[in-house]
Design goal:
By secondary structure, this protein is mainly beta. It is built from 1 helix and 5 strands; from the N terminus they run H-E-E-E-E-E. Strand 2 and strand 3 form a beta hairpin. The protein is globular and about 40 Å long. The N terminus is likely disordered.
Length: about 70
């Protein structure tokens, strides 16, 4: 498997925030769930409801977030 240090970005504690403070406007963020850090966004869908989305369509359940690196 891949080295875990390659999968986990080094984020300063001052940048990492609880998911309750994350933007819910569809902005892309770095979110952390039980699988690690990855890019995700909050989605509002008329039929499916409101949920976090990622490029794998896995509906992650993040607990922490940080802005994407510039």
């Amino acid at each position: 498997g891949a080295d875990e240090s390659e999968q986990t970005p080094c984020l300063p504690a001052t940048v990492t925030q609880t998911i309750e403070t994350a933007p819910l406007d569809g902005s892309r963020i770095l979110g952390m769930d039980r699988h690690g850090w990855r890019e995700m966004w909050f989605k509002r869908d008329l039929y499916e409801g409101e949920f976090w989305q990622d490029e794998f369509d896995s509906e992650p359940e993040p607990t922490l977030w940080a802005p994407l690196p510039v």
